[in-house]
Specification:
Layout: E1 2-3, H1 14-31, H2 52-58, H3 66-71, E2 80-86, H4 95-111, E3 115-121, H5 127-136, E4 143-147, H6 151-156, H7 177-181, E5 184-185, E6 188-189, E7 192-197, E8 200-204, H8 205-210, H9 222-236, E9 239-241, H10 251-262, E10 279-280, H11 285-300, H12 314-321, E11 325-330, H13 333-344, H14 347-358, E12 360-363, E13 374-375, E14 377-383, H15 395-406, H16 410-413, E15 420-421, H17 430-438, H18 442-446, E16 452-453, H19 461-477, H20 483-498
Helix pairs in contact: 9-11, 10-11, 13-14, 19-20
Length: 501
């Protein structure tokens, strides 16, 4: 592996190099889908084709028989046992999420009445450690659903079985190429996408109007974001952009990495069409330009919240609903959150909150000099190796469950409010049509999917994104280091992660 700009700084081991090269070669082959018509192969669509209008035009155009599709994989009368760990709805989830969860389990029991499921819903922050401990103690579940960053660690440790869509009756072309890449390790596929999502750019049209900006036109570029943020602050006294820079919080890289990628940077080369994960780009010109832009907003212009260093997205919600914040990045569920906050407000606060909701707008993430980009998020389902599983491994029960849950019906229904179907046929179903009718701005956030970029598919990705990237931002924003020094320090830290190997 090399650090860009200095070809003599070679530091990755041959073993790791070969592993990454094999994996990314296959991922690249998957990504280069032949020039099929977008209407036939949704995974091949471009950002220009995958518009809100296109998404709405294909919704409700197919019928799905889930039981019939599953029967082709595992007979519906199969008798067996399945153990399954996942992150399910909790007290913070909406009533609809709980309702759909219950309907899913009832439907699976109806489809496969002779498969007994022993399931555990585990807290998001606890499930990785619990699975590590369980696998080491040969007490892992047969199947687990994991956030897409986590799977490669378990595959690298030999805990997972190979698993690809074809193993449960679906062609790989029914899934986003970059989603499939997130489930790969050393050239082999170890999981199937259940759902994928991207975020969008949100702004307060009334604050734009007060600042002399076009209220219906979001910033087209990241340079515009810097300029708009300053103009909002100068003209209204309110904060412009909801910068997030908290350490060890996923919200930070999910909002800063699109900016870095847009300028031509990256942690490694994850934004390139054929990433190798063998080059450090966090100190290249593009990464430094992105870091300079947040420095300009925080230090030079003071147009973002001073609390950005400790803020996650949750801390942006109060100022936004109070009309004191002009722009932020978030999910379509942010609109529902603001509706709920407005409904609970009273007196003058309610008047302000209702006006903010009325003026809430969604648009595409801004472009940079190199590209438009957004973090490609989601979850994958995995099968653990029989030798680390508690009890006998029932492969047919596992395959039946995975086929049922990753098909177009339930990959759409289970992700109704918070994500999108991993199976691309889900976008053509009547359920997707209903979602588009019910969830405001879903078409906009969904239209960002072809621009989605996964974080590097390596076990070290979480440390890079949740620790090193925020540290770099904080070093620059506190002026502990210059922008150049902070980027160079981050590159050294990434190098140090791999140096012993």
């Amino acid at each position: 592996m090399t650090i860009q700009g200095d070809p003599t700084r070679l530091w990755i081991s041959r073993r790791r190099l070969l592993g990454y090269s094999a994996g990314t070669a296959l991922a690249a082959a998957i990504g280069r889908v032949p020039g099929a018509a977008a209407a036939e192969n949704l995974g091949a669509v471009t950002q220009e084709q995958w518009t809100p209008e296109f998404i709405e035009s294909i919704a409700g155009t197919i019928e799905v028989d889930t039981a019939a599709e599953c029967a082709k994989v595992v007979p519906l009368d199969h008798k067996g046992r399945l153990t399954y760990w996942y992150v399910g709805p909790n007290q913070a989830s909406t009533p609809l999420q709980h309702k759909l969860e219950a309907e899913f389990w009832a439907a699976f029991a109806t489809t496969y009445p002779n498969i007994t499921v022993e399931k555990q819903s585990i807290d998001y922050n606890e499930i990785p450690n619990k699975l590590r401990t369980a696998a080491l103690g040969k007490a892992a579940p047969m199947v687990a659903r994991l956030m897409l960053l986590w799977g490669c660690e378990f595959a690298a440790k030999g805990f997972l079985q190979e698993l690809k869509p074809e193993d449960v009756g679906y062609p790989s072309s029914e899934f986003w190429p970059r989603a499939l890449r997130s489930a790969m390790w050393k050239g082999k596929t170890y999981g199937i996408p259940t759902n994928n999502e991207t975020m969008a750019f949100i702004w307060n049209a009334d604050l734009f109007r007060q600042a002399g900006l076009d209220p219906e036109k979001p910033p087209a570029t990241w340079d515009d974001v810097v300029a708009y943020s300053k103009q909002i602050k100068d003209k209204t006294g309110k904060q412009g952009y909801g910068l997030v820079a908290r350490r060890n919080a996923g919200n930070t890289p999910y909002r800063f990495m699109p900016q870095m990628w847009a300028y031509g940077g990256g942690a490694l080369d994850e934004a390139e069409p054929d990433p190798t994960y063998q080059r450090i780009l966090i100190d290249n010109d593009g990464s430094r330009a992105a870091l300079q832009s947040v420095y300009d907003m925080y230090v030079r212009d003071r147009s973002v919240p001073v609390s950005a260093l400790t803020n996650a997205q949750t801390e942006n919600q109060d100022p936004f609903i109070a009309g004191r914040l002009g722009m932020m990045i978030s999910h379509p569920t942010e609109y529902a959150t603001m509706l709920d906050r407005a409904a609970r407000a009273t007196g003058d606060d309610k008047k302000i909150a209702d006006a903010v909701v009325q003026n809430m707008r969604y648009g595409l993430i801004p472009r940079g000099p190199v590209r438009r980009a957004v973090v490609f998020g989601g979850w994958n389902v995995h099968m653990f190796n029989p030798d680390v599983v508690d009890g006998d491994f029932d492969a047919d029960a596992a395959r039946a469950f995975i086929a049922f849950s990753t098909g177009p019906e339930w990959s759409t229904k289970l992700n109704w409010e918070q994500s999108n179907p991993g199976n691309l046929r889900g976008f053509r179903t009547k359920w997707m049509k209903q979602r588009l009718e019910q969830i405001k701005f879903l078409d906009v956030t969904t239209s960002m999917l072809p621009s989605g970029i996964p974080f590097p598919v390596i076990p070290e990705s979480t440390e890079i994104m949740n620790i090193i990237v925020p540290d770099m931002m904080q070093n620059a924003l506190t002026e502990k280091m210059t922008v150049a020094q902070a980027a160079e320090d981050a590159a050294k830290k990434i190098k140090d992660i791999f140096s012993p190997l």
